Amino acid sequence: MSARTIRALAIASAALALMAASLVPAAGAATPQTSLSEISGEVMCPVCGTLLELAESPQAQREKAFIQRLVDEGRSKQEIKDALVAEYGDEVLALPQDSGFSLSAYVVPIVAFIVAAIALAFGVAKWRRASGSGDDGRPVAAGLSAEDSARLDEDLGRYDL
Amino acid sequence: MLAVVGLLVFGLASHGSSRVQLGEAAPDPTLPKLDGGGDGSLAEHRGEWVLVNFWASWCDPCKEEAPALEQFQRQHESGDFTVLGIDSRDLSGDGRAFARKHELSYPQLHDGEGDMAHEYGTTGVPENFLVDPKGKVRWLTAGPVTEEMLNDQIAPLVEGKS
């Protein structure tokens, strides 16, 4: 192989490498980062009041087409959700946001659980006191009247202890 | 327990809505214009008769009533009347395409979140509310309007013959 042929091959290889390198970013820009099925399970069909993935109404079809278009453009899941919120408002999100009033959707159940647990603990303690049980579970000795004490002694006297 | 009941009542009160009644003041929220040129509201048309028309691009009956609405608008726009389209719970791009396709010349607002529809108590699209120059609801219908309805029921009010 002559030096000229080797040089031509080297130039051709370099050109091919440059072309491949220039194609990679272009392909990456249009590479889907998410999918319609992934997003439709996390957003609502505002008119239907159901998850988008369960909805088949005309409005839902439009919403799905809108999402698919953004997926094809290579937008991220968050970008697509932001675009949906810009169109339909926060109600399009299936999960409440973790800020503002929507935060109460997460906080209220936790607070309710803690309050219920405290109330239950107080209730159990009160019930145990009312039923005459001590902390160790044994009956609390009650004061005996003189008559009962005498009868107890009489009964015990019958046994050879 | 009281807190749970309170939350349930709040939830019902905040999500439930009742249809605006004849003689009541028409709700007047500010919404973005469908063409993207800032905000608009019913208040901009105070002193005019306004037929508030809730529609969406995905709604077939809305397609059927659009030509009649546009024709009525052209017949009466020189007087104190306008149709005010409210593109409700719809993608703004789809709404603009709908308005272009049907050559709708009357003003359009975008109610993507359905807030205005909620305030009027609509249950779907299309729905129509005629608001008088003082801002009171004078006529309404749940469903599409027809040429006959516009000419027989709306025109006499707008033209001061009723």
Verbal overview:
The complex is a heterodimer of chains A (161) and B (162). Chain A has 161 residues and is mainly alpha-helical. Chain A is built from six helices and two strands, in the order ααββαααα. Chain A has a two-stranded antiparallel ribbon. The radius of gyration of chain A is 38 Å and the shape is elongated. Chain B is 36% helix and 21% strand. A five-stranded mixed sheet of chain B has the order 5-4-3-6-7. A two-stranded antiparallel sheet of chain B has the order 1-2. In chain B, strand 4, helix 3 and strand 5 (108-111) form a beta-alpha-beta unit.
Question: Brief overview, please?
Answer:
The complex is a heterodimer of chains A (161) and B (162). Chain A has 161 residues and is mainly α.
CATH fold-level name of chain B: Glutaredoxin
Molecular shape of chain B: globular
Low-confidence stretches of chain B: none
The percent range for helix content of chain A is 55-70%
Classify the secondary structure makeup of chain A into a structural class: mainly alpha
Q: What is the architecture of chain B at the second tier of CATH?
A: 3-Layer(aba) Sandwich
Please indicate the count of domains of chain B: 1
Shape of chain A: elongated
Number of strands of chain A: 2
Q: On the 0-100 scale, what is the average pLDDT of chain A?
A: 82
Could you name the key traits of this structure?
heterodimer; A: 161 residues; mainly alpha; two-stranded antiparallel sheet; 6 helices; 2 strands; B: 162 residues; alpha/beta; Glutaredoxin; five-stranded mixed beta sheet; 36% helix
